[in-house]
Design a protein that fits this description.
5 helices; single chain; 25% strand; hydrolase; binds pyroglutamic acid; pyroglutamyl-peptidase activity
Length: 204
């Protein structure tokens, strides 16, 4: 059995729940192909531990694909992140009270990594199911971007594709739609080897 590792985050910044984990955990064990199963796990929302936890999970499961998800409060669409940048700049403290400002995720690492997922095909598939989705040009500079960058860094040069999806709050997207949207995004990522050419950009 091959696995797709799907992660969500624990709650942060006084929110009682984090829909990224609420949705991901409902997809744990879901088959997306004959011998490909989703393994869902929760990550801590802390700079010191989130990346380590993800790297351990990758070592443990040797997944064929990794998709990390997190909450982007205020966004109303499921957003496929295009790029992870090598900077931590936390507007708020993380769950361990740490608030790094202008530090590197990986000292000496490249400025950025692109997602290796077919983000346009994923957006298209989710939209075709009537669920709001878009490409996002920034995953921010908090714990989600840090995990996204670490993941791209450890998987660079391997055959495992990986990327990050930000999800809306439950006030802006009901959980069943989010779960279905994520499931479709994972399936599209798995079944698409060459991304489609569709406009996903923004003017500033
Ligand atoms: N969202 C935060 C961190 C954890 C989460 O779910 C972020 O976007 O960085």
């Amino acid at each position: 059995m091959r696995t797709v590792l799907l992660t969500g985050f624990e709650p942060f910044d006084q929110d009682p729940v984090n829909p990224s984990w609420e949705a991901a955990r409902l997809l744990d064990g879901c088959m997306i192909d004959e011998d490909v199963m989703i393994v869902a796990r929760e990550l801590p929302c802390a700079f010191a531990t989130a990346g380590e936890c993800l790297v351990r999970l990758i070592d443990e499961w040797r997944p064929v694909m990794v998709i990390a998800t997190g909450l982007a409060p205020g966004r109303s669409e499921i957003s496929m992140e295009r790029v992870a940048i090598n900077i931590n700049d936390a507007r708020i403290p993380d769950n361990l009270g740490e608030q790094p400002v202008d530090t590197a995720v990986v000292v000496g690492g490249p400025a950025a990594y692109f997602s290796t997922l077919p983000i346009k095909a994923m957006v298209k598939a989710v939209r075709e199911a009537g669920i709001a989705a878009s490409v996002s040009q920034t995953a921010g500079t908090f714990v989600c971007n840090q995990v996204f960058y670490r993941m791209q860094h450890v998987l660079a040069g391997t055959s495992a594709r990986s990327g990050f999806i930000h999800v809306p709050s439950e006030a802006l997207m009901a959980l069943p739609s989010l779960v279905e949207g994520l499931r479709i995004a994972v399936c599209a990522a798995w079944s698409t080897s060459v991304d489609v050419l569709e406009v996903g950009g923004q003017v500033s």
